[in-house]
Amino acid sequence: MAMNRRDFLKVSTSASGGLLLALNLPGCASVQTGYEPETGEWKPNAWLELTRDNDIIFTLDRVEMGQGTYTGLTTLIAEELDVAPEAIRVEFAPVAPEYRNPLFGLQLTGGSTSVASSWQPLREAGASARLMLVMAAARVWRVEPGQCKTEGGYVRHPNGLDSMPYGKLVELADKEVIRGDVPLKPRSQWKYIGRQAGRLDAEAKSTGQAMYGIDVELPDMVYAVMTRSPRYGGLAVSFNRDQVRAMPGVLDAFITERGVAVVADRYWRARKAQEALAVEWDFSEAVGLSNPDVFKHYRQAAGEDPGEDERVDGDPEAVLEKGSTLVEAEYEQPYLAHATMEPMNATAWYRDGGMEVWAPTQAPDLGRIAAARHTDLSPDDVTIHTTFLGGGFGRRLTQDYIEEAALVAYRVKVPVKLIWSREEDTRHGFFRPAMLHRMAASLEDGQLTGWDHQIVGPQILDWYVRNAAPAQYPWAPKLLYGTLGRVGLMVEGIATPKDISAIEGAIGYPYAVPNVRVRHTHTDPGVPITWWRSVGYSHNGFAVETFMDELANQANEDPVSFRLKLLESEPLHRRVLERAAELAGWNQPVPEGRARGVALFKSFGTYVAQVVEASIEQGGIRVHKVTCSVDCGQVVNPRIVEDQMTGGIVFGLTAALNGEITLDGGEVQQSNFHDYRLLHMHQVPEIVVDIVDSEEPPTGVGEPGVPPVIPALGNALFALTGKRQRRLPLKA
C-alpha cells in the first residue's frame, strides 16, 4: 500500500472555493476569521469545512487508535449539522493551538477525554454552521429563519417543496452574523446521538485502505532500525562499522545516544545487518536492577518515608491503633508492557530546512518537540502528519520513536522509515510502573471505622515532562528544553496541574468511612515508565477492591452487601453495583466448580461495576463470564461503549492472568507474544455489558473497563479456593 505526499498534505489543506467555518469556540479564541473574496473562503479556524461541491470535511483533533473517536466525534458534528455521519469526510488535524485538549493544554489523545472534552464545542460548531446556512437560505427566500428546516444537507423552504443544498449557500452564509448563544438540538430531536451505529472507519480498516504509520511509503524511501542498549541507560561505545556497512543494501551505520542506527535500502536488509552488529556498551550509568530489587527498594522507601498525605479524613491513626480488629495487607503489581498490535514506527523526511514526520502518535505537538531535539530545526519547522494508530493504550504518548526517526532522517537527508521489531517493542518500551500498596483498616463490630492506604512508587510526569513542558512553550529555544522540564517538575501542583498518576482512584475512595488516610511515598528505581490504559486506576483498583473484599470476609458479610452498606450516600455507585449483581445472578447458585467475585470502581468520571465468574480447570484459571454495568453519562454510540467496555475487560484480564515484565540485571526478559502473552480468543469469556441510561454529560469509556475486572477475578478465585492473592499476575 502506498500514499504519496500530495495525499498526506490534504490533511492540512482545504478545497478552493470552500467555506471554512471559523467559530469562536473554547480553545480557539486566538484564531481570527477572515473572508477572502478571491477564493470565496473563510480561513480555517477549527473543525468544519463546507464546499460549493457539497463536500463536508471534519478535522478530527483527537487521534483514532481503535477507541472510536473517528465515529463518535463525527456524530456530534453530524447531529447538529443535520447530516448523516457517513456523509462527512474525516481528516486528521495538523498541529495547531486550537486543537489542544483543553483538559491538558496539549494536543493529545488520552485520559478517556475525547468525547467529554468535545461534547460542547463540536456540537456548537455544527449548530453554528447549520444556523448560518439557514439564515442565508431564509434571506434568499425572504422568509423567517425559524420557518425553515434542515435535513440531510438541505435547507427546506416553509412550503415543504423548495430546498437548497448546503453547497449553494456557502458564499452567502459568510455574510450572516449569529448574535447570542447558538441553540443546540434538544435530546428529543436527536437522530444520531444515542443510536447504535457502525463505525465510519470500519470499511477502510477492513479493506486495507486505512493508512497506519507502518504503511507509509514515500519516493526513494529508505529503512532504519535501532539497536538499543540491553540495559536502560547504557551507551554504545563502538561497533564493527566497516563490516556492517559492507553488507548488501546498507547505506549507513552510526552511533547515537540511543544506540546504533542501521540504514538500508530495504527493511529486511537493515534487519540482517543489525543481526551482524557487535556493539561494545558502557553500562556505568545503566539500570542494573532485577524485579526483587525493585520491591526491596520500595519496601525500604516505605519504611523510611511515610509519604505525602493526599487525603486525610478524621483521625485514622488513632482509630487504627485502638480498633478491635485490625486488618493489614500488602499488594504488588509488576511492570506491564502495552503490546500494541502495531509496533512503534515513524517516517521522517528532512529537506529544504524543514522536516515532515508521518507517525501514529497520540500527541503530535510533543512529536514536533521530539523531532526538533536532534536537528537544527525549531518545532515550527516540523510538520507532523498523524496516521491511524494500531493501538495506543498510552504508549504512543511518549515520543521516543519519533525522536529516533528524526535524528536518522536529519543525517541521511532522504525519507526514512524507522520500525521497531516486536522484540524491541517489548524490551525497550516505556512500561506501566510497578507499584506497592500497604493497606490497613479497623473494624468495630463489623463496621469499617478506619482506612489507611500507603502507595509506593514513581510518578509518570517525571518521565513525561521532558517533551511536555517544551510543547507548551514551542517558541522557547532548544537550549531551554531541559530547564523547562526541570521547572515543570518544581512547580508541579502549584503552577501546573498536580501529577495524580500514582494516586488516582485511591483519593476518590467512595466508601463511607469516618477516618481515612491516603498517602504516596514517591520513589523511582529508574525503569522508564509512561501512561498505560487506565494508569493509576489500574493498580489502585486492584489494591482497593481486593482489600474491600478482605474486609467483607473479615466482617463475615456478603461482598456486595458490605459495599452497599458503605455507599448509602453514593447513588450512582450503588446503581451500577446493584445492576451488575442482579444481571450476574449474584444471589443465585453458581455452577459447580465455579465462583463469583465483584468489584466496583469509578475512573475518568465513569462508574463501573463488574462480576466475574471463574473456575480452575486443568491447572489453569478459566474466566467464564464477566457482567459489566457502566454509567458513562450521555452515550453517543452504544455500540462503541460496549466495544470499549469489552476491550477494557479483555485488556484487564490479560494483565491479571499473564501480564508481567521481569528485569534481570537491568535487562527485560520478555521479547514477544510467546513470553508476554495476550488473552487468546478461546480464553475470552462471555461478556455482558449493561449501559445505564443517563442525560448527564458524557464521561470516558476507553479505560474504565480495566480497573474493576482485575480485583473481581482475584475475588472470585478467593471465593473458589479460600486463598487470597495479593500479587499480580494471578495464579491457579
Describe it for me?
- The chain has 19 helices and 29 strands.
- It is an alpha+beta fold and 732 residues long.
- It folds into three domains: 5-206, Aldehyde oxidase/xanthine dehydrogenase, molybdopterin binding domain (Aldehyde Oxidoreductase, domain 4, 2-Layer Sandwich), CATH 3.30.365; 213-284 and 344-419, Aldehyde oxidase/xanthine dehydrogenase, molybdopterin binding domain (Aldehyde Oxidoreductase, domain 4), CATH 3.30.365; 292-335 and 432-460 and 499-721, 2-Layer Sandwich (Aldehyde Oxidoreductase, domain 4).
- α2 (69-81) packs parallel to α3, α10 packs across α11 (400-412) and α18 packs across α19 (706-721).
- The two termini are 45 Å apart.
- Residues 1-35 have low confidence and may be disordered.
- A seven-stranded mixed sheet has the order 12-13-10-20-17-18-19, sandwiched between helices. A five-stranded mixed sheet has the order 15-23-22-21-16, sandwiched between helices. It has a four-stranded mixed sheet with strand order 1-4-5-6, with helices on one face.
Question: Short description, anyone?
Answer:
This protein is 30% helix and 23% strand.
* Count of discrete domains: 3
Which bin fits the share of residues in helices?
25-40%
Terminal-residue CA separation: 45 Å
Q: How would you write the strand order of the largest sheet?
A: 12-13-10-20-17-18-19
Question: How much strand?
Answer: 15-25%
What name is given to the CATH topology of the largest domain? Aldehyde Oxidoreductase, domain 4
Domain Aldehyde oxidase/xanthine dehydrogenase a/b hammerhead: 207-285
GO molecular function: isoquinoline 1-oxidoreductase activity
Protein name: Isoquinoline 1-oxidoreductase
EC number: 1.3.99.16
